[in-house]
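If it is no trouble, might I ask you for a protein's amino acid sequence along with its backbone structure tokens?
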Amino acid sequence: MIQLVILLLLYDVNAGNIDIATLDDKKYVELSRHCFTAADRSSWSFKVKASNDAHVALMSTQNLSDPLYEIVLGGWRNNKSCIRLKPQGDCLSPHYGAVLDNETYSLFWISWANGRISVGLLEVVGENTIMTYQHSNPYDVRFLAIMTGFGSAGEWRTPNGKK
């Protein structure tokens, strides 16, 4: 009986959230597997625990070889973040300084309206912006994927697929 109560409490605390663990393997996990897409959205807020290299792909299709934006958070040993136009592409609009913590969740938002890719700290979209890049030939963002690697695993938390 006590175990059942504990399980119900854990469920209630996490109600409405999707928790995903990513390995130190540099392999993207598509959020559509967890019933969460970017369709009909122009921004996304989330939390992540990682020591370095938490990556987010903003994808036009579910194929990583198709056009996408890659957001690197805490790359280069948690010293630099940037926006890229493809995986491992050139670092655009860099932000210098630590943004991740392995022990506590770091809160971020990403927006992608009209080819303007912006990334910020905390949960309020448009505030505490750390990076912005205006793409002259914008990609249509429909899917999201996350990964960790380069010596770091991660724990991610996002609200469920409801707006």
Remarks:
- Helices lie at 2-13, 75-78.
